[in-house]
Amino acid sequence: MFQAILIEKDEQGYRATQQAIDDSLLPAGDVTVRVAASTLNYKDGLAITGQSPVVRIFPLVPGIDLAGTVESSTHPAWQPGDQVILNGWGVGETHSGGLAERARLKGDWLVPLPAAFTPEQAMAIGTAGYTAMLCVLALERHGVTPDKGEIVVTGAAGGVGSVAVALLARLGYTVVAVTGRASEAPYLKELGASEVLDRSAFNVPGKPLAKERWAGAVDTVGSHTLANVCASTRYGGVVTACGLAGGFDLPATVMPFILRGVTLAGVDSVMAPRTLRLQAWERLARDLDPVKLGLMTRTIGLDEVIPMARQLLDGQVRGRVVVKIAKAA
Ligand code: NDP
User: Fold this and answer.
1) Is the minimum distance from the CB of 180 to ligand 1 under 6 angstroms?
2) Cβ(142)–Cβ(267) under 8 Å?
3) In this structure, are residues 192 and 168 in contact, taking their beta carbons and an 8 Å threshold?
4) pLDDT digits (tens, 9 = 90+) for 264-306
5) Which atom of ligand 1 is nearest to the CA of 46?
6) Residue 217 confidence (pLDDT)
7) Which atom of ligand 1 is nearest to the CA of 225?
8) Does the structural domain 127-266 have CATH classification 3.40.50.720?
9) Residue 328 Cα, ligand 1 centroid: separation in angstroms?
10) pLDDT at 326
């Protein structure tokens, strides 16, 4: 038996509880991993609270990320003792995930734990941080270099936002952070933001075109915020869109795209190909300051996950949450 968060849905309703489960509840897979650490992302919050239909099979262990050690494997790439990480691939949605002492997965989904990181540091990054790096890579791919001008990061005090601010600042970009929490301005400046703006100027309906300001953007919020960011992006600028913390709608016009040549670059981490994942993790090992990572991270136990999921969705959690998992029996 081992400890897990389990989501069930039956005649008693939708619920997440911590309980001891056995291997019979784990899905099919060719690698079994002893989980050292997991994390809480926005999507985990949605899964645990049931606020959105993220979980599509029941019962299911949530947790879209994990880091741990291979216990057994029939996959040619992995041997017992290998240290691995997993992000996405539908884990924590349609396949049981990381918020348990043990997980069974497809070996093709795993990547090696980068030598630069402990399992806890890899989970401090987690899907949120790896997605922030995918946004940075997309900006680079579209030619946004630090000399082009300011980069705006929305939802900046959240997980994706915090890592994006730290990465971009370290890479020499001038970063403007947008947050609804004015009290987090000193934190965002410590991560490297040169200016902090209040989200109230962004999350309301705006003009089709506004004064040109941003050379690039990392948007984690969607809705009016994304529309306003596009409207104020400079000629030829690039907006990376990865989130929906403010809504999944996009009440925008085509004007920034057809009059200013703005590029809207979608970023998905879940099904991102392996080569891009390996590139993102290699760049995280090189470009993310471990001191800044420590600054944005808090560590909790499995027993604190369920209440923390609600707080995360309520926008009360700053930066990243690592879930330290006890050793399996
Ligand atoms: P967090 O909860 O850590 O951060 C979200 C942040 O968004 C909050 O901290 C807050 O920032 C801001 N926010 C919350 N509610 C609102 C609102 N109503 N209006 C405006 N801003 C709001 O989540 P993550 O950083 O983990 O994820 C951010 C988003 O990115 C989520 O929508 C998530 O689903 C998405 N995501 C997408 C991925 C992909 O593959 N495309 C991968 C990972 C995440 P502040 O307090 O600074 O205002």
Assistant:
1) yes
2) no
3) yes
4) 999 999 999 999 999 999 999 999 999 999 999 999 999 999 9
5) 34
6) 98
7) 20
8) yes
9) 32
10) 66
pLDDT beyond 70 at 42: yes
Q: How far apart are CA 99 and CA 33, in angstroms?
A: 12
Decide if pLDDT at 328 tops 80.
no
**Ligand 1 atom with least separation from CA of 161:** 25
Beta carbon of 315 within 6 Å of any ligand 1 atom: yes
Bridge partners, 244 (sequence order) = none
Query: The domain 2-113+296-324 is classified under which CATH number: 3.30.470.20, 3.30.470.30, 3.90.180.10, 3.40.1190.20?
Result: 3.90.180.10
At 110, the pLDDT band (50, 70, 90 cuts) reads: very high
Q: Counting Cβ atoms within 10 Å, is residue 223 exposed (0-12), middle (13-18) or buried (19+)?
A: buried
The domain locations on the chain are 2-113+296-324, 127-266
Q: What is the pTM of this model?
A: 0.96
